[in-house]
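Q: Can someone sanity-check these two? First one:
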Amino acid sequence: MARRIAAGAAYGGGSIGLLGAAAVGVMLAEVQLAKRQVGGGVAPVPPSADGRYGVAFTGPAEPLRLGLLGDSTAAGQGVRRAGQTPGALLASGLAAVSERPVDLRNVALPGARSDDLERQVSLLLADPARTPDVCVIMIGANDVTHRMPATQSVRCLTTAVRRLRTAGAEVVVGTCPDLGTIEPVYQPLRWLARRVSRQLAAAQTIGTVEQGGRTVSLGDLLGPEFEANPRELFGPDNYHPSAEGYATAAMAVLPTLCAALGLWPESDRLDGARREDMLPVAKAASQAAKEAGTEVTGARAPWALLKHRRRRRLPASTEPHPHPHPEPGGSTRLDHRQAADADGDGTPRHAWVRRPSGRPRE
């Protein structure tokens, strides 16, 4: 199905339905029930985290430029502090790994669907002198909930990736999250939401890899912990992630973000113990959609690399303060403080990640 969606997006095919008519009828009835409970709390307006991170690394090298695009997940809706948003977390982590300052610009819009990416890309590329070095796109949830045709969704995403790559930016896409993990969603809607989300995520991977980008499967926002602890990892509206949820997702995207810039050690050998493999793109996309945190990057066509990178603990985030030299648009600068022991538990700057087998791996 993902291969058909991606092909329809690439060659202008018509809408490809993800569900049968009977299933859609059941889904719509369940949606009405879920709407009464989702959003029972109020998600705060996402705080602006634009500015400079890692000022302690200021030196002769130019700051790296990081762009963030997408929907409310990319914007950080659900938290109240700028340092808790995924953009701030990724910028801080990238600064720590690269030992260079990072200028963040976030043009994501809460409620956006993939057809808004054209506007967002235009904003980022408006000034040729400030073209991002790398961009992270998180999109897809609103496409599912608003029933945007999957072929149109993937077509909009691949066009955005192609424009950014043509401009010289590396691109990492966090694929459609698993909407089946939203607590107020019940069966059979939960099963249908999970299926549709995974199909779209796999199709997004195929389209992105074909345009020279990389993807990271957000799935259930990384791991059984998200489904097992929804009260902790969901925000006050029971829909958007909390600060802990965003940190978990950012921790998985960071290694791929660094690898795209050549800052992450690469091995010529695939690690079989971590289930890394080289597969046809469609099969790699399908595998990634089933397991959150999986990276897919293109190899020699039609093959792709399936990777499970070791995740690093994110550096402690700080709050923005006025930039002594305001950037265009009134951005701010954030101080960066490295934290080798962010949790105060004596562990070094990497974290234990529980694999699906139940065995932790460093």
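And here is the second, same format, sequence then tokens:
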Amino acid sequence: MTVDDTGSGADGDGRVDPEPAPDSADPGEDPLALRLEGLILGAERRYTPFQAARSAGVSMELASRFWRAMGFADIGQAKALTEADVLALRRLAGLVEAGLLSEAMAVQVARSTGQTTARLAEWQIDSFLEGLTEPPEPGMTRTEVTYPIVELLLPELQEFLVYVWRRQLAASAGRVIQAGDDEEMVDRRLAVGFADLVGFTRLTRRMEEEELGELVEAFETTSADLVAARGGRLVKTLGDEVLYAADDAGTAAEIALLLVETMANDETMPELRVGIAFGTVTTRMGDVFGTTVNLASRLTSIAPKDAVLVDTAFAEELIRTRDAPASEAAAAEEAAAAEKEDEEPPVYRFALQPMWQRPVRGLGVVEPWLLTRRDSGGGES
């Protein structure tokens, strides 16, 4: 639902024209669909976009920007808006007027919220509600079953959504507070990893759509669970690829190897390859950007099957944090020195093997490192 920002329906001094308002419903609209909309929105259609903007005390231009940012389709000047739409405009405009948000930031809030919840809503309708609303008796339509189910689920799902959002907000705020200075709140040093299913394009030609959808869902679900459990953050999924970030190299390395190992143990899954880079990352609207992200993507494209490639900065970070030795020779020397002093030798989780330097499109010459685990005996596994 977006808007026509020409201000149609008003005369020069901003008053609504005396013409009768459009009907709230198109004659072709399904009455049951309208009932379902009213149930979900919790209010009836009362306003045209212009009337809603005026009631909220917001200019038509700003209302249009907010609605478009939220991803609502253009409805011209149909009477399709509710008291909730008016209240939402008032709240956003009030944050701007109070100086808590700039106008540009308020639009970003609208856009990020709209994009995130649009995907959630699509998933819930396509997967969740579709399964629950299978007609239990012959002759009943799906719509007839959907209404009572939504009526029961809506308040519970709403409370759960707010709970998860608060939890995620608390975790994100904690990460920002731990940043060293104001610049790090936007441009932070992170480990960024891409995990990519090998040969996915060929699979799309061989597999049925339903089977392919199940594979992608299994990959995304497994990846999301592993990333979250190990303390990383799933940035986004792209069907055959996931992008994740972690505050430290050790966490990112553990996630990458677990992803490869988990997929390798699943006969239904193709091989996986992972690329990780470490460095400054710009964060916007929950996404990550910058040279570090581009480098991680390029490393993924050249990584061998069921393997993890990392950049030099990532390798150096693992060495600095004592998660990996500078080399196996250095590790052997340290073990010998510890034995001589009757001390415990250092224990490293990972091993790094330098690969051939190679040119990477747009990034010059890079030196990838192959990341593996170290076995209990101290060598590469």
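A (reply): Looked at the second one. The radius of gyration is 27 Å. Residues 224 and 234 are 6 Å apart (CA to CA).
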